[in-house]
Task: inverse folding
């Protein structure tokens, strides 16, 4: 077989001859021939899935050849060659020889595969596809179907006369001497049987003939005309090394003398495995790798592929390489709303699915697209938290309130793709976990469904994941679905289907719309994806060459930071002049986005400040003095409560009450008579702030009784709506939390039915005297 293949390789160029080598003995026999430029594929592992994949690609190649030849108006491969010769074109399809060493193993272990191989050979004979089958024991392995489709038999020395008779019709092959390796008989299609001796290609030729020495007569005697040759020694190398040397010689011959672009040298790309393949024709591609790690080079290539010739950004995220053997398809695939209008579901374990989502996140950050990540897995949230500054928002399993806030905003944002050149990436990781958490909040579950099902219409690329099959309407929300091997194996219907491609441990099966864009509406259960992956750590490391990889946060959904510093005096003055030119509002702190939070307060109004212990009431009253430097303050501490007479004296001694705030702390400890005085004199002042911790008999307080049902209030760290009984509160702001917690100084401003979350500044940098002077200046 080796000499036959090498002879054919020397006779025909790779445009005319292609080899598909099948060696189930670990490529010991045919492996060295894989480096021939004619070799299209080498199948060396006896793996059922690999054999099935190769046969599907071969069947697709036969169908493609048949269609292309029909379109060219020819009926056979020989007519196709004549057509190419007449037009001067290089044949697109070489003549393919499928070489199977020890095909008995295929017959015994995979009879269906052998049957399919014979069917391919039968149909492909007129299309330039041929079979070369070899076995040591022909008895029982050559079926009637094989015998009917094999026109030429080659029989070397065999052990039994019966084997010789079955192949040749006589017993001569059984009597060949063991001292004559390579001797045999060939039975030709015309019935002739010829004896032959195959050359030995495992060693260099040796001199066996007697040397004839020639002389001429010269005085004083005979002089030799030629020199006695030295004895040629066979190098002390193994047979495979000598064969490899011969293969390299043939390869180098074609590479040095052939000018056609049919050869591609991959030696620089993969130094450990030098292969030469036909660039235009590869009926059986190499097996997909485990995955494609997202490198800086791949990231740059991906970005380049989505840029138009004018430099304008196009939408899309590289997902990986998809393979559909039965249709001969293998190509990169990317998520693109124009081609794939809908959500992508990734079903698998956390480690399987997050490797894909990490790669998508890295691409989105590289393109400065907003990234919204909602994950119900605490571990994934913890790993991403270090890189949260590069995300538009990151929500974890302990933050269901902020999840609902984000869903409401995205659902009503109308962030249309037509209005932005970007394609925001929205990843909802662990939808099964979120649905379990939201069982008692059907409204939030409905918002989640709407975001997954409809956000692509507003320009979001939606990707959601799950470890379990989704229930109800969520089961059909995805436009396309990726399924890991474990997920497929856990599904009885998919696992038992013979036509369903079982992916490798690191690959995914693709179902749905992604396949339609590849093969149209033809029947297809699933294709196979080799994904682009990366780790959480590499998300930012990949951006090392990018000086600015901050994403667009025009639709800010970020959570509150834990603290806000006290703004500089210049900032405070600017805020008041810009937002409070009429002086009708009082600055209370920061909003979630870092803008000032004002509360409207007419003169003489009483404003309750409600909060539990350690919620930051005292700090809030102190901060009010600093962030409103144009107003004075009269501080009344309930821990050392003055009597009614003392309070009257304090209030009447204030020179400009209309520019002064009364700040009352711990109202519960102030006597009722003193509270009555405050109710009497308070309307003279700019505003009266009343801080207290709710107690059971708060209705006994004259001030709180008067404030019951008020329209303006400050609620610090409210746990529920009941904490706002003093005012007209309908709901607590859902964006008030930081990682599911309410730190001290976090609260809600209730202003005539409108509720806004805010944070009290943390530190005080200026004295009250300096602040007032600066504001007046």
Result:
């Amino acid at each position: 077989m080796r000499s036959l293949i090498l002879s054919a390789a020397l006779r025909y160029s790779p445009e005319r001859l292609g080899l598909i080598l099948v060696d189930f003995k670990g490529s010991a026999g045919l492996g060295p021939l894989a480096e021939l430029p004619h070799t299209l594929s080498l199948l060396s592992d006896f793996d059922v899935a690999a054999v099935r994949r190769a046969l599907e690609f071969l069947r697709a190649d036969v169908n493609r050849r048949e269609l292309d030849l029909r379109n060219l108006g020819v009926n056979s491969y020989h007519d196709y060659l004549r057509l190419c010769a007449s037009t001067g074109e290089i044949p697109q399809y070489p003549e393919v020889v499928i070489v199977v060493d020890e095909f008995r193993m295929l017959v015994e272990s995979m009879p269906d595969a052998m049957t399919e191989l014979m069917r391919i050979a039968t149909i492909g004979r007129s299309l330039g596809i041929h079979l070369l089958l070899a076995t040591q024991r022909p008895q029982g392995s050559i079926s009637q179907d094989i015998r009917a489709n094999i026109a030429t038999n080659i029989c070397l020395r065999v052990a039994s006369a019966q084997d010789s008779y079955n192949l040749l019709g006589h017993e001569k092959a059984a009597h060949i001497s063991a001292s004559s390796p390579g001797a045999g008989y060939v039975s030709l299609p015309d019935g002739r049987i010829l004896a032959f001796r195959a050359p030995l290609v495992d060693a260099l030729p040796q001199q066996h003939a007697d040397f004839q020495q020639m002389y001429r007569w010269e005085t004083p005697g005979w002089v030799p005309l030629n020199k006695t040759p030295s004895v040629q020694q066979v190098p002390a190398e193994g047979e495979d090394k000598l064969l490899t040397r011969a293969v390299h010689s043939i390869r180098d011959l074609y590479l040095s003398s052939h000018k056609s672009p049919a050869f591609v040298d991959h030696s620089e790309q993969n130094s450990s495995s030098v292969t030469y393949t036909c660039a235009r024709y590869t009926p059986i591609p190499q097996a997909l790798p485990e995955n494609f790690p997202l490198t800086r080079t791949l990231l740059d290539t991906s970005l380049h592929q989505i840029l138009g010739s004018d430099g304008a950004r196009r939408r899309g995220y590289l997902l990986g390489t998809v393979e559909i053997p039965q249709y001969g398809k293998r190509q990169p695939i990317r998520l693109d709303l124009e081609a794939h209008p809908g959500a992508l579901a990734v079903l698998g374990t956390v480690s399987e699915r997050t490797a894909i989502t990490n790669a998508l996140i890295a691409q989105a950050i590289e393109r400065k697209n907003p990234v919204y990540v909602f994950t119900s897995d605490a571990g994934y949230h913890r790993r991403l938290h270090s890189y949260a500054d590069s995300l538009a928002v990151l929500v974890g399993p302990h933050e269901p309130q902020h999840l609902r806030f984000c869903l409401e905003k995205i659902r009503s944002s109308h962030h249309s793709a037509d209005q932005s050149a970007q394609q925001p990436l929205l990843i909802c990781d662990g939808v099964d976990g979120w649905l379990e958490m939201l069982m008692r909040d059907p409204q939030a579950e409905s918002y989640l469904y709407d975001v997954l099902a409809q956000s692509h219409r507003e320009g979001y690329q939606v990707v959601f994941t799950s470890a379990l099959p989704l229930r109800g309407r969520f089961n059909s929300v995805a436009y396309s679905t990726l399924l890991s091997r474990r997920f497929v194996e856990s599904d009885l219907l998919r696992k038992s289907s013979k036509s369903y491609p079982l992916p490798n441990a690191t690959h995914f099966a693709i179902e749905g719309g992604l396949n339609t864009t590849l093969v149209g509406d033809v029947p297809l259960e699933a294709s196979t994806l080799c994904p682009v992956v990366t780790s959480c750590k590499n998300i930012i490391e990949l951006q090392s060459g990018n000086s600015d990889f901050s994403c667009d946060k025009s639709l800010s959904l970020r959570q509150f930071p834990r603290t806000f510093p006290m703004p500089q005096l210049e900032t405070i003055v600017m805020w008041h002049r810009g937002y409070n030119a009429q002086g009708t509002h009082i600055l209370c702190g920061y909003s979630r986005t870092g803008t000032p939070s004002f509360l409207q307060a007419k003169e003489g109004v009483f404003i309750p400040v409600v909060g539990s212990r350690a919620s930051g009431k005292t700090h809030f009253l102190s901060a009010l003095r600093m962030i409103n430097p144009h107003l004075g303050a009269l501080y009344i501490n309930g821990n050392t409560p003055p009597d009614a007479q003392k309070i009257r004296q304090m209030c009447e001694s204030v020179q400009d009450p209309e520019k002064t705030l009364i700040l009352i702390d711990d109202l519960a400890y102030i006597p009722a008579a003193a509270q009555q005085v405050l109710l009497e004199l308070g309307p003279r002042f700019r505003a009266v702030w009343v801080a207290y911790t709710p107690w059971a008999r708060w209705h006994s307080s004259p001030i709180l009784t008067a404030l019951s049902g008020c329209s303006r209030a400050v609620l610090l760290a409210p746990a529920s709506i009941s904490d706002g009984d003093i005012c007209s509160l309908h709901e607590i702001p859902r964006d008030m939390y930081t990682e599911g917690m309410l730190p001290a100084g976090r609260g809600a401003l209730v202003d005539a039915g409108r509720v806004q979350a805010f944070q009290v500044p943390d530190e005080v940098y200026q004295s009250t005297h300096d602040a007032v002077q600066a504001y007046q200046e």
User: Anything to note?
Assistant: DSSP finds 24 helices and 31 strands in the chain. The domain at 1-151+251-287 is CATH 3.40.50.300 (Rossmann fold). Residues 202 and 238 are 8 Å apart (CA to CA). The longest helix spans residues 48-72.
